[in-house]
User: Fold this.
Amino acid sequence: MKISYNWLKQFLQIDWDATKTGELLTDLGLEVEGIETRESIKGSLKGIVVGEVLTCIQHPNADRLKITTVDLGADAPVQIVCGAPNVAAGQKVPVATIGTTLYDDKGAGFKIKKGKIRGEESHGMICAEDELGLGIGHDGIMVLDEALKVGASAAEVFDIEIDEIFEIGLTPNRSDAMSHFGVARDLRAGLMQQDINLELISPSVSDFHVDERTLRFDVEVDDKDQAPRYCGISITDVTVRDSPEWIQNRLKAIGLTPKNNIVDITNYVLHELGQPLHAFDAQKVKGNKILVKTLKEGTPFTTLDGVKRLLSSEDIMICDANSDPLCIAGVFGGSKSGVTEHTTSIFLESAYFNPIAVRKTAKRHALNTDASFRFERGIDITLTKYALKRAALLIEEYSGGKMGSDISDFYPEKIEDYQVFLSYENAYRLIGQEIPKETIKKILASLEIKINSETEGGLGLTIPSYRTDVQREADIIEEILRVYGYNNIEFSHKLNTSISFDSNKETKIENIIANQLTALGFNETMANSLTKPEYVALSDNISEEANVEMLNPLSNDLKVLRQSLLFSGLESVSYNINRKNNSLKFYEFGKTYHKYNEKYQEDKHLTLFITGNRTTDSWNTTSKVSDFFYLKGIITNILGRLGIDALKTIPAKQDVFSEGIILSIGKMKLVEFGVLKKGLLKEFGIKQEVLFADFNWDTILKITGNKSIKVTELPKFPAVKRDLALLLDVKVAFKEIYNLAFQSEKNLLKEVDLFDVYQGDKLPEGKKSYAVSFLIQDETKTLADKQIEKIMQKLQQTFEKNLDATLR
Assistant:
């Protein structure tokens, strides 16, 4: 939020420098993130002086140029070549002297230098108003008042304003400080603690009156909970034109672009007092009636930005007598009811809308306006009518308008101020230091918190309506502390602590594996549990029905809780690869969230991501790309470190993996890993191979927790390993090979592993090569060659018969 120091000084006549004021505001909780100096005209017209044209003759070498001699108040006049058609002797003109920097409308500067133009020397530049930033005219040079003194600084003539702009990082609870008046009010409280008592000057509305009632509007509110207060007034005979320069300067200082006097005044009062206002062209409000209501779901409405939006049945709308929508209440106006240069009468609105309703509407339509920003956080309901009078008086003064009606004020149930009792003992306990009671009373008075009653133990207080965030005793204590000053609280130089001992077994196991992975070169990631709902379309293992949706999502990209850690991990991989970090090893401990039959379920997972080279390039190390077996070795080591062995290997479903396997114990799946499909990686803009592993951590913890260490003898008889290179149809999956192998040999076959896959132009079209290893072992005797060959022939024949496989 931007706050103009000059604007602030209208309410509080402080003479501190901006840096010192910024420090006090930060101490008060209004953190000043930066201070920027702003000039109403860039460069502040430095080097621009008033000159008098003494002579003006035709340039001998150019039809459109003239040679002038100009008196700048120095010892001798200077010669300036000028191309303006209106330059003439006797004029007082603004002159940019040698060395002066002028700025264009984009802020780019150029320096005035001595030079020759068509052979004639020129010692400066006679300026047009756009060249000085004083307007847009470029038909000719500016002709100044003849009474001006030659040599006078143009900065004094045009009253250049230099301002300091505070950039305040406002916390959501401080709705009371969403205006210059609110910041001034808080600053005054801080100054009072330093015994600097300044008057808080509020804009006067005592001149408000209605002479003629020529344009009456009826106001009808359907739901007082959605609009607890609604004020409005009609103003006739307005002339829409540019705002006065002082209002334009105030708005420009905080980054707003002036539009016209009516719109600018509503924006001015918004940033002055914190009350949003809206002006309707009265002639476009049918039936001279304002209805505050909701409309049917899907009702079309075009907003001021020209975007056609479909309304929700929960959106509060401002409508005319025919229930035609004019404005999304508290958020954005409509394209058909706004003020234009043809507007001659207006209906001016000032209201208090339900903060929750406004926040939902703004999020629903992806609109974030100055008005919604304030309504969402809760404005001061008692300010509504006062701000309307303030704006009406300014419009009357600067548009020539007249009050066309009395103020309509719908306020059926007055909202009472909060009553809170403050215990001195609780204040001392929470603050950690005893603050004198008189100091506490002084702070409360500076914050306009009224003391209704006083006892030995505490104070009965009434909270002002604008402090919507102060409703409890703890809130009062926080207010006292921030104004008193956190830096004024004494802290002990002694720190007492005890050694913590974490006996949580699950945390110990997690730390063991985290340390192991870190030692292997992995980096831990922690992704947001909120993710895009569209990710469910990328995997058959998750479904849209199982999504856990947020009731009030921050954005469409953070709308559901994740059902898999895969996609958030790929986002991290893609982010790093796009920044030339191509060799990655990531791990993440995290949860997934699911909804099954209206019941919610959380599952803990450990995921691994590997891509690129195993190690960084070095002069004595050959780069080696990470592959499936490298990942498998890491996974086997992790499970081995936890004492988990005797694993069963089965093929993974070809869902997100092009090739993958599952390690399990019995029917319990422990980890699923493999090479991710290229089509999936393409969704994240990843062009290199990525290996992924997903551990069911809850299952692993369960097994590890119940697992006792067993010692078994090593097999007395050796195992035999044989390989087959099979040429297969591309549609054949490793799972089919795996299942057929164990069906063919149930007794002596122990393991079936895929260790190479090849597809290329050296193979027939539609074919691929699988290199598969088979581990054969008899635990009672040594296998004979004939027995081994018989098993391998049996396997080969099975693959040929069922899969149409051939040996390579």
Q: What stands out?
A: The mean pLDDT is 90. The CA atoms of residues 176 and 467 lie 6 Å apart. The first strand starts at residue 2 and ends at 4. The first helix runs from residue 5 to 8.
